[in-house]
Amino acid sequence: TDCPYSSSIVIVVLEQPLSTFNATDTICITDEADINYTGTFANGNFSWDFEDGTEVGNGNGPYTVTWSTPGLKTVSTSVENEGCYSEVYSENILVQDVLTPPVIDCNSQTNDVTFNWNAVVNATGYEITINGEVQDTINGTSYFVDGLEPGNVVEIVVTVFSNNMCSDVSTFASCEAASCPPVILSITADE
Fold it and tell me: Which residues are CB-neighbours of 101 under 8 A, at least 6 positions away?
């Protein structure tokens, strides 16, 4: 019994989605990272992980993301399209902390004052402004002002230059040159 039979089947091969994206690589904690999807299947179903970041955007984006803590953050996504899943794609974003303004203290003598402050993490230097005029940029954490008269007030602004994505910070302080000690006269009569 010979029965001729013929049949056909259509096989659809779907392309595996690609879940790549571009992201800002380093930001200050006060800024936001931009994330733009660059993969295939922009209309797929996305699964994003922003590692505790707060994101604005949906689907394939674009997104802006902020974090409340500094450190290295990993952002990842995967895409599903008609039952086909992409591999997980990840990129790291370094979130840098703001500079902490230094605390300035003062030691005064009758003819000079010395300003001291704490070292600031991520500082490249300190610009010194005395009584409204820029004097110098230094790497140390103290500045000496002499040639004063007792009671002279010296105002200092220490601007900390940042070596990261966060802004420079400044701190103001003033210090008065010590007054002369009181003169105490003691008169004794000869007998």
Answer: 120, 160, 169, 170, 171
The separation between CA 42 and the C-alpha centre of its own chain, rounded to angstroms, equals: 32
Q: What is the pLDDT of residues 54-64, one digit of tens each?
A: 999 999 999 99
**What does the chain come to in residues?**
191
Burial 94-113, CB ≥16 within 10 A → b, else e: ebbebbebbebebebeeebb
Contacts of 37 (CB under 8 A, 6+ apart): 19, 20, 21, 46, 60, 61, 62, 77
- pTM (2 d.p.): 0.77
- pLDDT, tens only, 94-121: 999 999 999 999 999 999 999 999 999 9
Asked if residues 46 and 114 have their Cβ atoms less than 8 Å apart, the reply is no
Q: How confident is the model at residue 69 (pLDDT cuts 50, 70, 90)?
A: very high
How many C-beta neighbours within 10 Å does residue 179 have?
A: 10
* Distance from C-alpha of 168 to C-alpha of 124, rounded to nearest angstrom: 10
CB 24 within 8 A of CB 47: no
